[in-house]
Amino acid sequence: MTSDVRTVEWTGDGLRLLDQTLLPGRVEYLVARDVDTLVDAIRRLVVRGAPALGVAGAFGVAIAVRQAAREGWDDAALDAAIARVREARPTAVNLSAGVERVLPFAAEGADAVAAEAQALLDEDVRGNRAIGALGADWILGRAGDRPLRVLTHCNAGALATAGWGTALGVVRELHARGRVELVYADETRPLLQGARLTAWELDRSGIPCVVQADGAAPSTILRGLADVAVIGADRVAANGDTANKIGSVGVALACAAAGVPFVVAAPWSTVDLAVPDGGGIPIEERAEEEILTWAGVKTVPDGVGGHNPAFDVTPAHLVTALVTETGVLEVSAGVTPRHADRPS
Ligand code: MRU
């Protein structure tokens, strides 16, 4: 596991973030002590992944409360700063949920907010362990005795959470049980979370993996080279429609065509029962430069624009199972979050 690096850590006066834009080449940290720095870090994906964004958002309120005291803000200025944290990225519901969770503590001061944010962080790690165990149980219950070839997309690992990971938590648990033959990590254009981050995590953990182009994933699945696909989620609607990194839908369609389970691993906090279906999930549109350039070099003719949605929505009927810390919902068989008990 990535036990020697901490994605998100409260220092007492700021939030220490492992700068994921620099991986795998450099392991460097950025400390956000003001709202501008944190919002910029979230937008640039210094910190990213739905659960990690939830934790960053919660600590972001502590940063705002400290800054308000330091700089003499009135209530309106503090509210506006907190809103900027909440809205820094739109798709992962965890970000706004993390902010909302700690808001009742704001009147007690930054330390009380930070204590609640720390509770969220600790819960996330515990939840990921449970997701890993439940997901591995479910997969192995259908897999027979053979070693498994697992396909994953983007990064839903320790780097995307407070620790251990959701989809990669399942992979880590399968590996601990001696059942992983190989992980196919989709490179995840345009920001390469799979190539840079998932491969880094798996390699450090001694889990065999290869990186493939996103366009290779459907073919890998149709050729029978993957036994299961496991991905994370940024928001799951009440009917089970699942928003995740752009390219997830292609993986799901290929899995459905090949009869391969498509498993979504996410904490219950990623489920948004207020959104009935995927049509209500806001999809982040990022700057076209991310598509029009490669390593800073323009790759597209002048005058041609880019289309850069950061997420897509996989329809519920393509989601074989949703693994949360409270259990497994067999979504394509009709068991959706809407029909599940909210955990206590
Ligand atoms: O744009 P990113 O890197 O924040 O996107 C992350 C993903 O899509 C993850 O798969 C998702 O947040 C789940 S993380 C456990």
TrEMBL record:
Residues of the active site: 234
GO terms for biological process, alphabetical: L-methionine salvage from methylthioadenosine
A molecular function GO annotation: S-methyl-5-thioribose-1-phosphate isomerase activity
Chain residues that bind substrate: 48-50, 89, 193, 244-245
Catalysed conversion reaction: 5-(methylsulfanyl)-alpha-D-ribose 1-phosphate = 5-(methylsulfanyl)-D-ribulose 1-phosphate
Pathway: Amino-acid biosynthesis; L-methionine biosynthesis via salvage pathway; L-methionine from S-methyl-5-thio-alpha-D-ribose 1-phosphate: step 1/6
Residues marked Transition state stabilizer (site): 154
UniProt superkingdom: Bacteria
Pfam families recorded: IF-2B
EC number of the protein: 5.3.1.23
UniProt KW keywords: Amino-acid biosynthesis, Isomerase, Methionine biosynthesis
Family affiliation: Belongs to the EIF-2B alpha/beta/delta subunits family. MtnA subfamily.
HAMAP family for the chain: Salvage_MtnA
NCBIfam families named among the record's database cross-references: eIF-2B_rel, PRK05720.1, salvage_mtnA
Function: Catalyzes the interconversion of methylthioribose-1-phosphate (MTR-1-P) into methylthioribulose-1-phosphate (MTRu-1-P).
Protein name, UniProt field: Methylthioribose-1-phosphate isomerase
Gene for this chain: mtnA
